């Protein structure tokens, strides 16, 4: 850590300065500082939901923009996401207690035959950073694993990832099974991974193909808003 940064005493900053400092610390992936700042704001009477949205989610939104624009890269975003997770660890039980609103729920996993997970992990972390509740099924998921998880978790969104051209087609198996079971329309299905493209996403019946984690968050928010609007007009 640079000398000038050591001079910053978080507890001496006012609320606005501290929030901005948290955005910077998240950007730099400073886990301990984020945890300290979360405790300070809680001590000042901030609600867990306000800390989540104004400090952590807003900080990750800035990280997401720079990731999308190629200013930040995967290792830096993973560090930022880990710092965000440490703050979330403190807030999660408090958010559950207060019944704070969530943007939505997501189940995500890499498909059967595929053991790649860096991209998927990044999407999970960025989605959590945006205020979604995420259940990560890990790698090598058969269709049964997805079906069980969505029946158990009742998410709004199902996310599938593949990094191999040989495992990509398995996404269609999952979507076709949802169609057969009459469940397809209950979920927003997002797909991603290096060999995929928009055309493939459309061909297999997904709601959207997401190029990277930042796009996944933007797309999820957009489709959730649309879903709520449709429900509102019913």
Automatic annotation (TrEMBL):
GO terms for cellular component: cytosol. Residues 9-103 form the B12-binding N-terminal domain. One of its GO terms (molecular function) is metal ion binding. Gene3D superfamilies: Cobalamin-binding domain, Methionine synthase domain. It comes from the Bacteria. Pfam families: B12-binding, B12-binding_2. Residues 103-234 form the B12-binding domain. The keyword S-adenosyl-L-methionine does not apply. The keyword Transferase applies. GO terms for biological process: homocysteine metabolic process; methylation; tetrahydrofolate metabolic process. Keywords: Cobalt, Metal-binding, Methyltransferase, Transferase. Belongs to the methylamine corrinoid protein family. This is 5-methyltetrahydrofolate--homocysteine methyltransferase. It comes from Pontivivens marinum. The lineage of its organism: Bacteria, Pseudomonadati, Pseudomonadota, Alphaproteobacteria, Rhodobacterales.
